[in-house]
Specification:
The complex is a heterodimer of chains A (293) and B (202).
Chain A lengths: L2 H6 L4 E6 L8 H10 L5 E4 L11 H10 L4 E6 L5 H13 L4 E5 L20 H12 L17 E6 L6 H14 L3 E6 L3 H11 L6 E6 L4 H10 L7 H9 L1 H5 L2 H14 L5 E5 L7 H7 L4
Parallel strand pairs in A: 1-2, 1-8, 2-3, 3-4, 4-5, 5-6, 6-7, 7-8
Helix pairs in contact in A: 4-5, 5-6, 7-11, 11-12
Chain B lengths: L1 E5 L2 H7 L4 E6 L5 E2 L2 H13 L3 E7 L5 H8 L3 H6 L2 E5 L2 H10 L5 E3 L1 E5 L29 H4 L26 H11 L20
Parallel strand pairs in B: 1-3, 2-4, 2-5, 5-6
Antiparallel strand pairs in B: 1-7
Classes of the chains: A alpha/beta (293), B alpha/beta (202).
């Protein structure tokens, strides 16, 4: 089901993210999704995340659907031109997948296949425009589609804790103009920054889900701070992760930190998006501690 | 070789402010410049009172040369509210760098032709995309200066104003935003979703 309908009903929308494997065995992913992600409204499937070649988002969305799970088809502009993107959107519609999330995508040099051609024929804004065009019964070349037009809940991303938050907000506005109906954010660790961001973003009246990543250890936190654009982790988070290594290793500290951030921010947004990065097993405990279950 | 082609006349006229200075770059052997059509347009803009001055010059792509060529016209440029540049994309960017407190707009699109590209060492680049974006982007080219050649704004990969691909490289969209902010022209960025045309010229 389209998550835009949940937002319209005023529900606080929960989503979690899974990353397909580098291979074609989905048993583990599907098992974890069925075991740990039953309480979220939809499961995002990444599209060759970090420019690392993997099984496709579309095939994984279909496999989740076959298990009765609602999915969000993430689509980047890195690897496909407008012909392939439109074709994949129609394929998604054929499979009954009706949530999508438009991303520009990391550059190819960020991943494991640096020699690949970066495509970027479209970008997040023009991809949203493209989906809207298909929904109107036409393709980007202006040719009419056969039969019914597809219909998606159209999502996009924004970085509330970016050091370029003005520029990000300008882009957010362009995405809304192009058709974005909901937003998921880059990981937030600084509630104050997020709340300030929402104070500016609320004028657009488009639902925003706060993005969270359960921090696994201080090393990971430092790495994200130094290398991941749009992520800024305050010192207190790193100190807490360092304090009791066993507790941190067991995921307890990370869950506590993340639950606290969600609690501080949830009144300012319309949902939570959990990027578990392999820690799907901790999602139920996180939802419980954050008071969302 | 490259061809500079005038943008639609109405589009150029809409860019001209009440006090416009035109810089017309006419000397380059490697460029086919639409001299006759340009002259007609300059006369039109002068006739309507919007163009205060037409500076006919050459090689504005070179900042050193541009400084020499525009020296005696500085008071006129200072007094203008708009600078319209008729040159290849490199020329427009050099002018917008030099007069970064002025709205600088391009009157031409730049289209590639195979062959000799000239030997002038330059600090800016033009990909000769044929649909010049500089008027929307404060004279900073997102095609040549963004790693992904994005035309609809900044991606999520900008950290501390630098590009995800190269920490030494400025994010073009960060620069575009800051330039437009300084010029109080942020509204220019609110154009409809752009999709580039990759069809070879007929």
């Amino acid at each position: 089901m389209r998550i835009s309908e949940l937002f319209a009903r005023g529900e606080f929308v929960l989503t979690a993210e899974v990353g397909p494997p580098k291979g074609f065995n989905l048993d583990h992913l599907l098992h974890e999704a069925e075991e740990f992600l039953q309480d979220v409204h939809a499961i995002n499937v990444t599209d060759c995340q970090s420019s690392v070649m993997r099984l496709s988002s579309l095939a994984t969305c279909k496999a989740l659907k076959d298990k009765g799970l609602n999915s969000i088809f993430q689509l980047t502009c890195r690897d496909r031109n407008r012909i392939a993107l439109q074709s994949d959107l129609l394929s998604a519609a054929y499979f009954g997948i009706d949530n999508m999330l438009a991303l520009t995508g990391d550059h190819t040099v960020m991943g494991d296949t640096k020699s690949a051609k970066p495509v970027f024929d479209l970008d997040s804004v023009s991809l949203l425009h493209c989906v809207k065009t298909l929904e109107g019964g036409f393709d980007l070349a202006g040719n009419e589609l056969d039969g019914d037009a597809p219909k998606f809940a159209k999502g996009a991303v924004v970085s509330p804790c970016s050091d370029s938050v003005d520029v990000q907000l300008a882009k957010m506005e362009r995405k809304i103009e192009a058709g974005a109906e909901y937003f998921q954010t880059q990981a937030v660790y600084d509630s104050e920054k997020f709340i300030k961001f929402m104070d500016r973003a609320k004028q657009y009246k488009v639902p925003v889900q706060i993005g969270v990543i359960i921090p696994k250890n201080a090393g990971m936190a430092n790495f994200m701070n130094n290398n991941i654009a749009g992520v800024s982790i305050p010192a207190w988070v790193i100190e807490e992760l360092k304090a009791d290594k066993e507790k941190t290793k067991a995921g307890i500290t990370g869950i506590e930190i993340t639950a606290r951030i969600i609690k501080e921010c949830k009144d300012y947004c319309q949902g939570v998006h959990i990027m578990a990065l392999g820690w799907e097993k901790h999602v139920p405990a996180l939802l419980e501690q954050a008071g969302l279950k | 070789m490259l061809i500079t082609q005038l943008k639609q006349i109405d589009e150029v006229k809409a860019l001209a402010g009440a006090k416009t200075v035109i810089i017309s770059c006419e000397g380059c052997k490697e460029v086919h410049f639409p001299a006759a059509e340009a002259k007609e347009l300059y006369n039109d803009l002068k006739g309507s009172g919007t163009a205060q001055k037409v500076i006919r010059t050459e090689y504005v792509c070179s900042p050193e040369n541009l400084a020499v060529q525009t020296k005696k016209h500085l008071p006129a440029i200072e007094a203008a509210d708009t600078v319209l540049v008729f040159s290849c994309g490199v020329g427009v960017q050099s002018v917008s760098e030099m007069f970064d407190k002025k709205p600088v707009f391009a009157g031409c699109d730049t289209i590639p032709l195979p062959g000799y590209q000239g030997v002038t060492p330059l600090t800016v680049d033009c990909d000769q995309c044929g649909e010049c974006y500089l008027n929307k982007t404060g004279g900073i080219c997102p095609i040549a200066l963004c790693s992904k050649s994005l035309v609809n704004g900044q991606c999520g990969g900008c950290k501390d104003g630098k590009c995800e691909v190269d920490k030494e490289m400025d994010c073009a969209w960060e620069r575009i935003y800051r330039r437009l902010e300084k010029l109080e022209l942020l509204e220019n960025m609110k154009y409809p979703a752009q999709i580039r045309n990759f069809a070879p010229e007929a």
